[in-house]
Amino acid sequence: MAITLLLNNAEAVKKKVHNLAEIIDDLGTRLEYLHKLSVEDLIDFFQEVALFWLKEKSNSGGIYLKNIEEFLEKENLKRSLGVALRGNIRVLDEFADLGDPKLLFHAQPRGLSVQWLAGNVPMLGLFSII
Question: Per-residue pLDDT for 75 more than 90?
Answer without folding.
Answer: yes
